[in-house]
Fold Phenylalanine-4-hydroxylase.
Amino acid sequence: ERDFSLENQRKLKTDLFIFQETMYIEENTYKNDMISLIFLLKEKVGALAKVLRIFEEKSINLTHIESRPSRVNKDEYEFFINLDRRNTPLLTDIIKTLRNEMGVTVHELSRKKKKDAVPWFPRTIQELDRFANQILSYGAELDADHPGFKDPVYRARRKEFADMAYNYRHGQPIPKVTYTEEEKKTWGTVFRELKTLYPTHACYEHNHVFPLLEKYCGYQEDNIPQLEDVSKFLQTCTGFRLRPVAGLLSSRDFLAGLAFRVFHSTQYIRHGSKPMYTPEPDVCHELLGHVPLFADISFAQFSQEIGLASLGAPDEYIEKLATVYWFTVEFGLCKEGDTIKAYGAGLLSSFGELQYCLSDKPEIQSLNLEKTAVQKYPVTEFQPVYYVAESYLKRNSCFHKSFCLFSFRRFASSIPRPFSIRYDPYTQRIEVLDNAKQLKNLAESISSEMGTLCSALKKIE
Ligand SMILES: [Fe+2]
């Protein structure tokens, strides 16, 4: 009898990860004169012979072959083979034949040069658990100029939050926090002040969602909303979810979360001595700045696409993507008719900067991703430059429905990556589209959606 308990599912998933990681082994772990491949075959009489014949036809001699039952599919076998490096020129054709004509999944283990190795990236939403212990600084370590640096009570509290996030695993409810009176007071000040600016300064989407958060998620002056409630709300809107984070993540890890529609969120609040200032993201920044926009379908899509573009991308492109994220998701402005509004979370959670960004002091430029992606920026002071996303639509619609998503796709297509990927929301896995079988599945799913679209169009005629 099969055991579907959570623990067992996790174990099963772990087995899958081990397999997937073997896909990118660096060249120097193998002998230099050798090429290694793994391919998967369905258990069938003559299946292996058919594959071997292809090598034989090209007069390629295999120096080593071994097999094992696949850990992914029960009815498949994995074959590991070695061949002489001199055969490299012929190999591309052979792999093409295997993939396209026979639908065989092939993993090249050592043919690629080291410099082309693709950085590891999570393939399943559960694998985001790995980032929990890859944080750059633990939440309790504060810089000397942090308002809470000399406050032992605040530091102990930060440690509590950091530990909670550190031990969090995907699938668990986010622990609810009983915030202290002082913490609630800090929240209240920030909430009250910012709320006076939103009607005039925030974009349409933010103002549209905010009352819903007040109604369903406990957004009130005297209550700090719980991440778990907010995460559930977002899941019903766009499938976005929150996960607590113990400290600062690297750009690569943070962006990877977005690919799964997961937003790493802090849960602690800034120091009470300076309610209008925080040198780092805190729960006010996440809940007031980020959350409302993640409830918007177009914005959620845009955010996820930044994440998807980052998976396996070279380091220099991660930096560019993080910069694009900075000038859009964090500090973006957009045009609504003739007026400019803020949609960036860094602006929507800062009383001072929200006013400053729409004044005549900063420099305002049109969003142009190629240019924006290399713009330098300060992290501890108001931005000297903001980028405005133009809207092609005349009415009150924000940027993503028109400008941002299209231009981002064009930008993302310039990122070198030797394969295409796609997120499967049913399995919550990233699919690497590198064989005929997967492409066929994708075609079928698009075809089914097209059928639905055509039939719906006919009905509303
Ligand atoms: Fe942020």
